[in-house]
Amino acid sequence: MTERDYEQEAQEQGWKPESDWTDPDKPWIDAKTFVEKGERIAGIARSRADRERTQFESRIERLERANKDFGQYTKQLREKDQAKSAAKIAQLEAQLAAAVSNSDGEAFDQVNRQIQAERETMAPPPVNGDQQHPLAEAWLMNNPWYNENPKLKTYADGLSEIVGQEGYTGQAYFSEITRRVRADFPEEFENPRQSGGNTVEAGSQKTGPKNKSAHTYENIDPDSKRNCDEFVAEGLITREDYLKTFEWNK
Whole-prediction pTM value? Predict the structure, then answer.
């Protein structure tokens, strides 16, 4: 068996004999120690790289699964909302026909405006048209204030170009708009049940039984909790918005 030539291996890796060593700040080490130290460092680096690659692949797998589940979740919400809008439009069209039969121009104009407004809610949101519609639609469903509050809608539209110019794209773009709107107008998102009556409510919770009909995170089923936690962890939605869109009557 050929004896290992440590000196040749070490020199190929930058090692120098003691006679050629000129660095006073570092002690000279022999060729075998140099090679073995390099192998240990390389082994540690490989182990770290393998661990980081495994963690990265696991993260990608979780993100892909969350995105798939979230896509199904938003699709179901969209279909439910569209069905409700279609039913409401059908009712309004019946009222519109009645207004025509009664020659009631004022009622006709009023109902017609309601129909147009309802149809607009079924269309993709106008927030930054350069973004992909699926993300925009999901954002709109989870942020109803955009169509319900003219002041917040105008402010969000103004942020749209600014956030885009700062380099935000995809889900991060929509999350940043939501964050800034909520930060600048916290009073618009304040839950009135959380102000003024906290002491009484807290006292009643201590002395009375838990309200199982309350629309809270604790009262949703385990599968929905798991989905909610995963969506929140991946930054796809907030817990508050998830609870707003949860079907409590199912």
Answer: 0.31
